[in-house]
């Protein structure tokens, strides 16, 4: 991504058509290759393969009630919510730019957190293997979440 462009609103989240994303960046993001460096975090023990996706601190600070429980779990590279919202950028593109962050915090983030909390309550080796398989199939374009 470009750090800044003349017409960028400096949003913390991106959406389809974001002018800050380079041509190479679009390709890397589409194939999810931009996630590969996070494997270093898995090897260091800071992340797991399956677990909620870490989000911006600003957004995580908006969580209340049961949703805050997600903060006690190790984040991961993939999760049920990351599969469901694989094309989140396209959903955000439908929202006016000035409303995008608020839409994310009030609509998308709560759904993602609840899906991932539900996963954590029932996580087993078998569910993790299914999520990993679905992720691989999704990246290869053979599964729609």
A few lines on this structure:
This protein has helices at 23-30, 38-44, 57-60, 80-84, 88-93, 100-122, 125-139, and strands spanning 48-50, 76-78. Mean pLDDT is 83; it is low at 5-10.
Written account of the structure:
The longest helix has 23 residues, at 100-122. This protein has a two-stranded parallel sheet. The two termini are 26 Å apart. It has seven helices and two strands. It has 145 residues and is mostly helical. 47% of the residues lie in helices and 4% in strands.
Portion in helices: 40-55%
Strand content: under 5%
Structural class: mainly alpha
Structure summary, number of beta strands: 2
Count of alpha/pi helices: 7
Widest sheet: strand ordering = 1-2
> What composes the largest sheet?
2 strands, parallel
- Uncertain parts: 5-10
Radius of gyration, taken over Cα atoms and rounded to an integer in Å? 15 Å
Shape: globular
Distance between the termini: 26 Å
Summarize the helix and strand pattern as letters. HHEHEHHHH
Whole-number mean pLDDT: 83
Helix/strand layout:
Blueprint: H1 23-30, H2 38-44, E1 48-50, H3 57-60, E2 76-78, H4 80-84, H5 88-93, H6 100-122, H7 125-139
Parallel strand pairs: 1-2
Features:
145 residues; mainly alpha; 2 strands
């Amino acid at each position: 991504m470009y750090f800044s462009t003349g017409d960028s609103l400096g949003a913390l989240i991106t959406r389809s058509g974001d002018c800050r994303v380079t041509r190479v960046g679009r390709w890397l993001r589409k194939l999810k290759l931009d996630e590969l460096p996070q494997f270093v975090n898995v090897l260091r023990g800071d992340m797991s393969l399956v677990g909620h996706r870490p989000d911006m601190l600003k957004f995580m600070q908006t969580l209340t009630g049961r949703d805050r429980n997600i903060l006690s779990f190790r984040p991961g590279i993939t999760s049920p919510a990351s599969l469901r919202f694989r094309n989140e950028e396209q959903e955000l593109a439908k929202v006016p730019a000035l409303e995008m962050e608020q839409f994310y915090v009030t609509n998308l983030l709560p759904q993602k957190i609840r899906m991932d909390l539900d996963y954590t309550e029932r996580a087993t080796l078998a569910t993790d293997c299914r999520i990993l398989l679905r992720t691989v199939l999704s990246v290869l374009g053979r599964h729609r979440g």
